[in-house]
Amino acid sequence: MSDLKISNLCKSFPGMDRPAVNNVSLDIKTGGLIAFLGPSGCGKTTILKMITGLFQPDSGDITLDNASLLPIATENRGVVMVFQNYLLFPYMNVSENVGFALKMKGVEKGEIDKKVKEMLELVKLPDIGDRKPKQLSGGQQQRVALARALISKPKLLLLDEPLSNLDAHLRDEMRELIVTIQQKLNVTTVFVTHDQEEAVLLADNIALIFDGELQSFASPKEYYESPINERAAKFFGGVNFLKSNIKDKQFETEIGLISYNQKNTNELLSNHLLTIRPENIEISKTNNFKDNYFSGVVTSIVFSGTNTRYKIKIKDTVLDCSVQSVGKKEISQNDEVFVHLPADKIWGMND
Amino acid sequence: MDNNLKKSNIYAIYFGSFILILPLIAFFINAFSFRWFYPQLIPKELSLQAWVRLKLIPKEGFRTLDGFIDLWLSNPTIIKALVNSVTIGIIVTIVSIIIALPAARVLGLLNFRFKKIIIFIMVSPTILPPIAFVLGLNINFITWGFSGSFWGVCLVHLVPIMPYVVLTMTGIFANYNPDFEHQARTLGANKFRTFYLITLPAIAPGMVVAALFAFLVSWSQYLLTFLIGAGKIMTLPLLVFSTASSGNPALTAAISIVFIFPAIVILFFTSKFVSGDSSATSGFGKL
Q: Which of A49-58, B44-53, B128-137 is the most confident on average?
């Protein structure tokens, strides 16, 4: 069991006009793989450093299994952090690096050697124990850092930007390795990233943080389909936004009335925003839609492999729509087309 | 080595080094000669007479192991001066590094207001002539009862030493990543072990250089020892001066060799840390 609970955490640094972390509360269940996502400087690494004990929070609490971590010294917290640049100790070889945590615990030498061997096999680097960190590639260093972090069976594993220093082709490999190992050892893992794609691919749940404040804590799917506000939607690649008011159980927008299936519309204020993913918009030259269709003009077409992106102007509004390239009827620039916004895909949110 | 460096440049360097070493060669010949006067190009007769008079080597006929031990245990001035110089040097080296470590860490890792001014104040003893501050210090030391004491001399040696030690160590910390320490902490190392296993190996080369500076600066202090020691604390530089004023070239040469010997030995063993590639010296660029 290792449930991490963060409650009302605040931290300010002198010389900053806003708190680095402002009233963040989170509940993370055992075995979860959680991403802290946000642009750089949003406070996500600060939270990690408070969990490890490098920083003390100004107020709030962090508990692991219902016991507060704050009075415990870093080395006794059972929380291990892997830093962005791996930080393998340069004076030790790979085996000594990996075995470091066990040596600190006073485990006997033969036992350490055995465990080190196991860990290096787990990260698929069985034969490099005698090498110095300098002689390893970036990907290998990352794996060694992971092995070193996991050898002492921490209750909580923290990864700071685990993939950002790797080449593109190494990332996929490393991502799979992290997921496999995380599931195998069932260690609660929190990682920090500024890359929404990385967060979506890896995490069960994403904590989105802007300017030190937690925006929402939800599954990746929810961020795509029902974002909490415009900024969150934009962070996940949302491009279509329409100003709207509710009128007679329909969204009233500048392109016309749109019917919806959304349940929580009573929470929407007047002058809210609608959004829809480009890939959820349907277009056709002939009108075979029953509802929520509008006629517009194609202003640009961009072919990007699997999908083709169309910009369609309806009255004064331009909507982006992304359609599978394969088997698509020919639509060319300046054609008049019908645009369908499916009622179950359109999403209204307060700003 | 740059391949474009012309041969004449290399010869110029050899020549320059030769000029620097020339006085040392003259010292050596002088120290082991007997009555070497102008216009003789080389001395007519070699002898150990200067060393005997310094009481470092026993008289002829007594040059056995026992003879040496007896002579040195009789505690002649030179042995007293050597022992004083070495112990003062070692004490102030250790103390200066312990004092400089936290200061250098803050100066190297953090940026704050007035940092430049603080660094300037710290290096000011290297700019001021010692006579400017030692007279004032001497008055205070007399009132505090440090004058003429061993510990007073140690204390005053710290004044010219601290700038070198702090600056050298600041250089190390400017290139130092404190995240390594935190990494070790999260892996279960306590503060003491983190310092011993992570910090110390990283800063050791720079500490060697700093210690070298500290010891040599202390080793060559004349004025401060002379005034604060009030003549009671005899160190090697004091003996060198008084011997040199006696006008015996062989004796002066011999004691000068004793004086420069540790510098050469220390430099020989630590030269790899002082070279440009060492982590100890590369940090200066960031200051």
A: A49-58
Residue/partner pairs of B9-16 with CB below 8 Å, 24 or more apart: none
Number of compact structural domains in chain A: 2
Q: What's the pLDDT at B273?
A: 67
Interchain CB distance below 8 Å, A89 and B188: no
- The pLDDT assigned to B284 comes to 39
* Complex ipTM: 0.77
CA-nearest of A122, A151, A6, A120 to A70 is: A6
What residues are paired with B70 via a beta bridge?
none
Residues B168 and B88 in one domain: yes
3-state secondary structure A130-142: CCCHHHCCHHHHH
- The letter for the amino acid at A43 is G
Distance of CA A222 to the CA centre of its chain: 12
Q: Which of A340, A234, A333 is nearest to A295 (CA)?
A: A340
pLDDT, position B283? 40
Amino acid B161: pLDDT: 93
3 state DSSP class of A344: coil
CB contact under 8 A, B185 and A83: no
**HEC profile for B185-234?**
HHCCCCHHHHHHHHHHHHHHHHHHHHHHHHHHHHHCCCHHHHHHHCCCCC
> Which residues between 187 and 246 in chain B have a beta carbon less than 8 angstroms from any beta carbon of chain A?
187-190, 193, 197-198, 201-202
Structure tokens of A73?
């010294």
Domain count, chain B: 2
DSSP result, A242-285: EEEEEETTEEEETTEEEE---S-GGGPPSSEEEEE-GGG-EEES
* Residue A92: DSSP 8-state: S
| Whether residue B112 sits in one domain with residue B162 | yes
Q: A53, B185: Cβ pair inside 8 Å?
A: yes
Can you read off the two tokens belonging to residue A102? 């066990």
**Looking at the partner chain, which of A81, A87, A152 has a beta carbon nearest the beta carbon of B180?**
A87
CA–CA min distance A104, chain B (Å): 6
Same domain for B130 and B185, yes or no, is yes
> Among residues of chain A, what percentage have pLDDT more than 90?
12
Q: Which residues of A touch B183 (CB under 8 A)?
A: 81, 83, 87, 89
Q: What is the rounded average pLDDT of the residues A218-226?
A: 86
- Record: contact A81-B183, CB cut-off 8 A: yes
Q: What is the CATH number of the domain that holds A23?
A: 3.40.50.300
Top pLDDT among B28 and A87 is at A87
Q: What is the pTM of this model?
A: 0.75
User: B54 with B40, same domain?
Assistant: yes
Q: List the alpha helices (DSSP H) in chain A.
A: 44-52, 94-105, 109-122, 138-150, 168-185, 196-202, 220-225, 230-235
